[in-house]
Design goal:
heterodimer, A: alpha/beta, 2 domains, six-stranded mixed sheet, 12 helices, globular, B: alpha/beta
């Protein structure tokens, strides 16, 4: 029987790792993710998880050790955030290029300077071009489920790419919520043993990994990562379906809420989706035609689903906790690209909010809605809007 | 109340009063280090305007930033010495001081520490060694004593700690000393020497973290940790006559090296002069 209990997202991530039975975990402490390896080290020390737990001296070493272990053919896991993920940057490309299905849990946190330990998505968003798959959890249950799903997708022969699962710093990492821990046997059935059939290190059959790729071959190597990302779209749908059958919880790349007949659809990710669902309920009571769509999967970018979503609304209002300077948010760039060649498309309005742990309140969302309504009414509007700025200290 | 205490503290002139009280836990050794550093600066009559203090990430990185009233540069985890190298080359007339912890300077940033010592650049490093990752909640570090309990070594640590002062002395620093927070006067004297030495200087301060280290190792009171330091401190002269087995779990204190060696920034400027002279460029550019 699955156990229903309460826990923080960090604990849920540690439980997911325990259920997935990785053979090697290498991690380095960083706020707000430290509890993940701490909990795993307890599991290992108490003999509840049969794995090697390596206490490395930096995140660069953590992901490097995971690459080494994964290249040797075993399931690996680590957790980090913010500067830690940024320090892993170099190795993230290597993990994707070597096609190693490593899974990282990321407590989404802002980047320095100034130093800030609180939530936004700049850390994972900044790694969107590394080739890694990216999932974003709305709550602690999703954090646990998406890590299991991430392993399954990452290890699929048609994919073989590393994956990161993001969940918001403090809002989820340190907040206790009800979580259902699935049965080990069912997880074993779902995931199975990881048995690499592609390139992996084995002294009995020596190969070279990560060697020089000359101009004659490099582009093809990159193209296979592109192809694997494209393949992942279908695989993710299959894995979501299988997950629902086994565990009863439904996941979609783009999850819609009250989008039927909506004129304005808010689009967001992570825990902010919960806030916006409440907000939409509140607006619906006033008779406003609004809905919300949540991206559970950000890489591969769900282009097809986004195009379907676009047909339903007159305005897409993107609410994002990240910036790509002089452009707007990363979602704005992605949505613009997904819709640019369509004959008919909604207006897109971009909102940057909640950076560095600033709370997103209904008042902020009112501010965003007012601008989205200008777009809806055919009035002039700014494409990129910073919401909730304290103009008095600027 | 708090303001009154500050007004009676003679070193308060070196602190940013608006930033006080510090973020350090009660009983932390960080305050002792800040006090020792302020006293050393005071006794040497160094104008804080001639100081640049650089720190990385972790509790000890907060000792000087933002509290010490000088230019302070708060950087990324492990890289304080690399940032400080840039500051020193850019502003060779300033005293550049790095104050940060073991998790920062000797673990994730250990490579920078060794190579700054090898290069012998004129930077003073005050490395506060509390033997644990304190800020993130007490995980095992490369400086954690063998056998100690931490959140990620719940039964005991099976790795041996890096001997920081010995390593830096071997790497080529001009000045290296180790004291504990129970040796405040010796610490002030060593910081003074370190600030005056031309070349790379390291003062390692073994410091107490009663919250993350002490509690898990039967020393939850700061005083218990200080007594532990005093009881297990061995002067270098005595340590030389002891076997590695006898030295297990001891803190070897004192000056490891105090020597003159060519310093990096001077050598760099000498080289620039030589090359300019060789190509007849003297006078066109004043160099670094």
């Amino acid at each position: 029987m699955p156990i229903r209990t309460v826990m923080k997202a960090n604990e849920a991530a540690a439980w997911a790792a325990k259920l997935a039975k990785p053979k090697v975990i290498a991690a380095f402490p960083i706020t707000p993710s430290t509890l993940v390896p701490e909990k795993i080290s307890e599991f290992v020390a108490d003999g509840e998880l049969d794995a090697e737990f390596i206490k490395v001296e930096s995140e660069h070493s953590a992901i490097s050790a995971c690459v080494g272990a994964s290249a040797a053919g075993v399931r690996t896991f680590t957790a980090t955030a913010s500067q830690g993920l940024a320090l892993m940057h170099e190795i993230l490309f290597i993990a994707a290029g070597m096609r190693l299905p490593i899974v990282i849990a990321v407590g989404n946190r802002a980047l320095s300077a100034p130093i800030n330990i609180w939530n936004d998505w700049q850390d994972t968003i900044s790694e969107r071009d590394t080739g890694w798959l990216q999932f974003y959890a709305e709550n602690n249950q999703e954090a646990l489920d998406l890590i299991l799903i991430a392993f399954k997708v990452a290890e699929d022969e048609r994919v073989l790419l590393p994956a990161m699962v993001g969940f918001d710093a403090f809002i989820l990492t340190h907040t206790v919520e009800p979580v259902e821990i699935p049965d080990q046997e069912v997880v074993d059935e779902f995931l199975g043993e990881y048995e690499p059939k592609h390139a992996y290190l084995d002294p009995a059959r020596p190969i070279t990994q990560g060697a020089l790729g000359f101009p004659a071959h490099y582009m093809e190597a990159r193209y296979t990562v592109w192809e694997a990302n494209e393949n992942a779209k279908k695989v993710i749908d299959e894995v979501f379906a299988e997950f629902e059958k086994k565990f009863g919880r439904k996941y979609q790349k783009v999850e819609e809420y009250r989008t039927e007949d909506a004129e304005v659809i808010f689009v967001t990710m992570g825990s902010l989706a919960g806030t916006v669902k409440e907000y939409v309920d509140h607006l619906r009571e006033q008779g406003l035609k609004v809905g919300v769509a949540k991206l559970t999967v950000y890489r591969p970018f769900p282009t097809e689903e986004v195009r379907e979503l676009a047909k339903k609304a007159k305005v897409l209002a993107l609410l994002e906790k990240n910036v790509t300077f002089s452009v707007g948010g990363a979602l704005f760039q992605d949505f613009s690209r997904a819709l640019v060649n369509l004959d008919e498309r909604p207006k897109i309005v971009d909102f940057i909010l909640g950076l560095g742990g600033r709370d997103v309140t209904f008042k902020d969302l009112d501010e965003a809605l007012a601008i989205a309504q200008r777009a809806l009414n055919g009035e002039e509007f700014d494409e990129v809007n910073w919401i909730g700025l304290r103009k008095e200290i600027l | 109340m708090a303001k009154e205490i500050y007004s009676r503290y003679p070193m308060v002139k070196y602190l940013r009063k608006e930033a006080l009280p510090t973020a350090l836990c009660p009983g932390c050794g960080g305050g002792t280090v800040l006090n020792a550093f302020a006293n050393a600066v005071d006794q040497l009559r160094i104008d804080p305007k001639d100081l640049v203090v650089v720190s990385g990430i972790g509790c000890s990185a907060w000792i000087a930033s933002p509290y010490f009233l000088a230019d302070t540069l708060h950087t990324t985890h492990g890289r304080a010495i690399a940032f400080a190298t840039g500051v020193k080359v850019g502003l060779p007339d300033k005293k550049v001081v790095v104050i940060s912890g073991d998790g920062d300077l000797a673990s994730i940033g250990g490579n920078h520490l060794i190579h700054a010592a090898r290069r012998n650049i004129d930077i003073t490093v005050i490395l506060v060694n509390n033997m644990i990752y304190g800020m993130t909640g007490g995980q095992v570090a490369p400086t954690t004593p063998f056998g100690a309990k931490t959140t990620t070594s719940p039964y005991r640590n099976i790795e041996h700690p890096l001997q920081i002062s010995e390593t830096v002395a071997a790497a080529g620093a001009s000045y290296v000393a180790r004291w504990t927070t129970a040796h405040v006067y010796q610490l002030i004297e060593s910081i003074k020497k370190a600030l005056q030495v031309k070349g790379f200087s390291l003062v390692e301060v073994v410091s107490q973290c009663p919250v993350q280290f002490g509690r898990r190792n039967r020393m939850k009171e700061p005083a218990e940790m200080l007594r532990w330091f005093l009881k297990n401190s061995v002067p270098i002269s005595k340590a030389k006559k002891m076997s590695p087995e006898e030295l297990e779990g001891k803190f070897v204190i004192g000056e490891f090296v105090n020597r003159e060696r060519p310093e990096f920034v001077s050598e760099l400027n000498k080289l620039i002069d030589e090359v300019q002279e060789h190509f007849g460029l003297k006078g066109e550019d004043d160099g670094v």
